[in-house]
Design a protein that fits this description.
It is a single chain. By secondary structure, the protein is α/β, with parallel strands linked by helices. The protein has helices at residues 47-54, 76-80, 98-108, 113-126, 142-154, 172-189, 200-206, 224-230, 248-255, 279-292, 307-315, 327-340; strands at 6-16, 22-32, 36-40, 62-67, 70-71, 83-86, 160-164, 192-197, 209-214, 217-222, 234-241, 261-266, 272-276, 296-303. It has a six-stranded mixed sheet, with helices on both faces. A four-stranded antiparallel sheet has the order 2-1-4-5. The chain has a four-stranded antiparallel sheet with strand order 12-13-11-14, with helices on one face. Strand 12 and strand 13 (272-276) form a beta hairpin. The N and C termini lie far apart (48 Å). The relative contact order is 0.14.
Length: 341
């Protein structure tokens, strides 16, 4: 945890849409100045809705959010002047050059031409686009457009940069370059970064702390190392050929008799997961206990915990990577279609 007063403070935040859909369900957390803070969870978990409230584009149904010392519901203009925002959708104008996009963004923040020119040179160098600044964005690759999008969010030197799924849809090489730029802007600019992602590796590599959110609620919060350590040992994943006489509850009880076992449960895919203090000692004991009860193990795998395992530990299932967007995403798509119609 970084020292000092939090730059974001959220208390019992609720956002409910028409029809009773509660996208954010009483979340509380804080973000320290200079921190890279991640919201990790599947599509539809409430990540984007939370960001929309924090940047004052959605009013909370209940609770309170304070950003840079300003209440997002009562002082939205003051909040907006202190933050930068990069959405899931790349928001640059293909018909303009990179420089023109940045100039337009600077003017929207009421910066004078001299300040824009100075900041433009700085942010273009940071995202490695100086040589392409005069080219039409139409000629940029997807990764270059995303980097320009991030540069636009930085042109006015915000205290906090909100990044909503910053590498969504990018190839792994481009994704890693974006990670480097995020680290650089924190180190060079001192910017606090609040990002959402459903990529486990991204959260693990970038974030000082991670909040895992699912169904609108925070189910775990801490540094990636703390979250993985909280599982309390190695993970054994078993594919058990169970007989008709063994109910799921019976197998849980049986697995918990294995020496050193801290937790046992069945995952969504039908496999069994056992958390043990020392996996190398628990593995043969598992086979012995199950074999003594006439159960055959088709496969057994052991590994150290990852953030995937943390999510599985707290929710009982793996991260839902293929589900649709959250409610705000559907609303945003409808607005886009209306503009095009």
């Amino acid at each position: 945890m970084l020292a000092g007063d939090p730059i974001i403070q959220v208390t019992d935040l609720v956002k409910e849409y028409r029809g009773g859909l509660r996208a954010v369900d009483g979340v509380s957390f804080s973000v320290q100045r200079g921190e890279i803070f991640g919201f990790l969870g599947p599509n539809g978990a409430g990540k984007t809705t939370t960001i929309m409230v924090l940047i004052s584009l959605l009013r909370p149904t209940a609770g309170r959010a304070v950003v840079c010392g300003h209440d997002v519901a009562r002082e939205p203009d003051r909040v907006r002047s202190r933050i930068g925002y990069v959405s899931q959708d790349i928001a640059v104008d293909d018909a303009l050059t990179g420089e023109q996009n940045l100039f337009l963004q600077g003017r929207l923040y009421h910066l004078d031409r001299e300040t824009i020119a100075r900041r433009m040179a700085e942010v273009l160098a940071m995202v490695d686009l100086t040589d392409r600044a005069g080219d039409l964005v139409l000629t940029y690759s997807g990764g270059m457009r995303k980097r320009l999008d991030i540069a636009e969010g930085l042109i006015h030197r915000p205290d906090i940069l909100f990044l909503d799924e910053p590498t969504l849809g990018l190839d792994i090489q481009t994704r890693r370059r974006i990670w480097d730029y995020i680290r650089l802007l924190r180190a060079r600019e001192g910017v606090t970064v609040f990002m959402t992602t459903h990529y486990m590796e991204e959260a693990d590599q970038l974030c000082d702390r991670v909040a895992i959110i699912d169904h609108g609620r925070i189910v775990a919060l801490g540094s990636p190392a703390e979250l993985k350590a909280a599982i309390g040992g190695d993970l054994l994943t078993l594919d058990i050929a169970a007989g008709d006489g063994h109910a799921a509850g019976d197998l849980v009880g049986l697995l918990r008799t294995v020496p050193g076992t801290k937790q046992a449960f069945r995952a969504d895919d039908g496999r069994w997961v056992l958390v043990a203090g020392h996996g190398e000692e628990a593995a043969p004991a598992v086979l012995e206990v199950l074999g003594a009860h006439g159960l055959r193990v088709r496969s057994l795998a052991m590994k150290k915990p990852t953030l995937d395992d943390v999510f599985l530990h707290y929710t009982g299932r793996e991260l839902r990577r293929s589900e649709g967007s959250d409610d705000f995403g559907r609303m945003r798509m409808g607005l886009r279609r209306a503009r095009m119609g």
